Amino acid sequence: MTARRASLTRAAPSLYSLALAGLILGPILGPGYLLLRDAVTTPRSYLTDSALGLTDAAARAVPQDAVIAVLSSVVDGGLVVKAILCAALWLAGWGAARMVAVLLPHAGLGPQLVASTVTLWNPYVAERLLQGHWSLLTGYAALPWIVCAGVSIRRGRPGGWWALTSCLAAASLTPTGALLAVVVALVVLAAPGGSGRVPSRLLRTVALFAAASAPWLIAVLGSGSGATSDRAGVAAFASRAEPGLGTLGSVAGLGGIWNSTAVPDSRTTLYALAGTVLLLAVVACGLPALLHVRLESAERGRRLDPVIVALTALAAAAVLLPALGATGWGLAVGEWAVVHVPGAGLLRDTQKWVALAVPLYALAAAAGVRALGSRIRLPGAIPAAAIVAILLALPDLAWGVGGALKPVQYPSSWQNVVEDLEASAEVGDIAVLPAGMFRKFPYSGDAPVLDPAPRMLPVDVLQTGQLVVGQASTVGGEGARAARVEQLLLAGAAPKALAEEQVRWVLVERTTPGPLGDSRRTLDQLEKSWEDEELALYRIPGDVTDSSAEGRGLAVATHLLWAILLVGSALAYAVVRRPHSPE
Question: For the residues 255-266, what does the mean pLDDT come to?
Answer without folding.
Answer: 96
